[in-house]
Design goal:
The longest helix is centred in the first third of the chain and has 40 residues, at 50-89. Helix content is 40%, strand content 20%. Strands 1, 4, 5, 6, 7, 8, 9 and 10 form an 8-stranded mixed beta sheet that branches. A two-stranded antiparallel sheet has the order 2-3. The chain folds into 2 domains: 3-87; 108-342, 2-Layer Sandwich (BirA Bifunctional Protein, domain 2). The protein is of the alpha+beta class. It contains 12 helices and 10 strands. Helix 2 runs antiparallel to helix 4, helix 3 (37-44) packs antiparallel against helix 4 (50-89) and helix 5 (108-122) packs across helix 11 (315-323). The structure holds 3,4-dihydroxyphenylalanine. 3,4-dihydroxyphenylalanine binds next to strand 9 and strand 10.
């Protein structure tokens, strides 16, 4: 066997035994690199006579070709091996769900509160809060409900035990005391809504001892019934997500507003199901009116200079009407099956642009 055949056989044996891509690369450099064995042989051709070159040249070129082919083959084989072992190692569990679904649900009351806040924020209102425990002055007297006023009997108030001063605090029977607290601590113009917990000693399918109200208050220098009407009509349309909805303001009485009204919306019944926005019947949804001048006076505001309007409604009732629940008590049962059915997905945050309820 000649010298070139010897080199070829040895190199090819080594190439076929290369364990990985790095070892193969080292062999390629050793044979075909600048200082490689085959390259060195090729360089010797220049010093040979024409005759010698004619004999040796083809042999060396054949050697180069054989080595190059062997490297390519080994390279391909190593790639297939690498893929096979990756496929063996990396496993995908196709039974896993593609995206975990959130399991918690937003309670309809929180959802509806967020929807209402979103609508009124767009109308320029901010959210105010008070405390659940109130005193007689803010819950009644300052709202033009003096002691012995018959309206006090309608509120079924929960009273706390008397404190050292003999004063009996109470659980607020409505969110209206926050009107007083705001007017006494802020200068007009005022535009607030007050969503919050309220308490009355009452319990049946449509009453629970704790429930939720929404209060609204606007005080400025040129506010009138037209503003009240426009504002509440905008709210009702946005909240029920219906453009055509019949509404009527019916005269009413509240001690803290004059004149006072109740807002009714049109509804109908289809297959025994209540449908908002029809014209068969009326549903009462909120109380409202122009803030009584005596209330303004009790908040040290000059009624000759300032007026405004107020409104109040039950958040739970709004939620029941919009989402078709019939028993208020279920709201407070913490029954997971009920929550999964009526609850909302945590990331479906209500926005006016993206849709309130989806
Ligand atoms: N506070 C009243 C209630 O609990 C609701 C209400 C009616 C509030 C008229 C208002 C209003 O601000 O103007 O029954």
């Amino acid at each position: 066997m000649g010298k070139t055949e010897e080199i070829r056989d040895r190199l090819i044996k080594e190439i076929e035994g290369a364990a990985d891509v790095a070892a193969l690369e080292a062999l390629r450099v050793k044979a075909l690199g600048k200082k490689g064995q085959v390259t060195a042989l090729l360089k010797t051709l220049g010093d040979l006579s024409v005759d010698q070159r004619r004999r040796t040249g083809p042999k060396i070129n054949a050697l180069k070709e054989a080595v190059t082919n062997a490297i390519q083959e080994r390279q391909a084989a190593l790639e297939i091996e690498a893929l096979a072992s990756r496929l063996l190692e990396e496993r995908v569990d196709v039974t896993l769900p593609s995206r975990p679904r959130p399991r918690g649900r937003i309670h309809p009351i929180s959802q509806v509160t967020d929807e209402i806040s979103e609508i009124f924020a767009d109308l320029g209102f901010s959210v105010a809060e008070g405390s659940d425990i109130e005193d007689d002055f803010h819950n009644f007297t300052a709202l033009n409900i003096p002691p012995e006023h018959p309206a006090r009997q309608m509120h079924d108030t929960f009273y706390l035990s008397p404190d050292e001063a003999g004063q009996r605090k109470l659980l607020r029977t409505h969110t209206s005391p926050v009107q007083i607290r705001t007017m006494r601590s802020q200068k007009p113009p005022i535009r607030i809504i007050v969503p919050g917990r309220t308490y009355r000693s009452d319990s049946d399918a449509t009453h629970t001892p704790m429930f939720h109200q929404l209060e609204g208050l606007v005080i400025d220098q040129e506010t009138h019934m037209g503003h009240l009407k426009g504002c509440l009509e905008d709210f009702v349309r946005a909240f029920f997500e219906i453009d055509e909805i019949k509404m009527r303001f019916r005269p009413s009485y509240f001690p803290f507003t004059e004149p006072s009204a109740e807002l009714d919306i049109g509804c109908s019944f289809e297959d025994g199901q209540l449908k908002i926005g029809g014209d068969q019947d009326w549903l009462e949804i909120l109380g409202c009116g122009m803030v009584h001048r005596r209330v303004l006076e009790m908040c040290d505001l000059d009624p000759e200079r300032y007026q405004g309007f107020a409104f109040g409604c039950g958040i739970d009732r709004l939620a029941m009407l919009k989402y078709g629940m019939t028993d208020l008590r279920a709201f407070f049962d913490s029954d997971l099956r009920w929550l999964r059915h009526y609850g909302f997905l945590p990331l479906d945050i209500p926005t006016l642009a993206g849709g309130l309820s989806r």
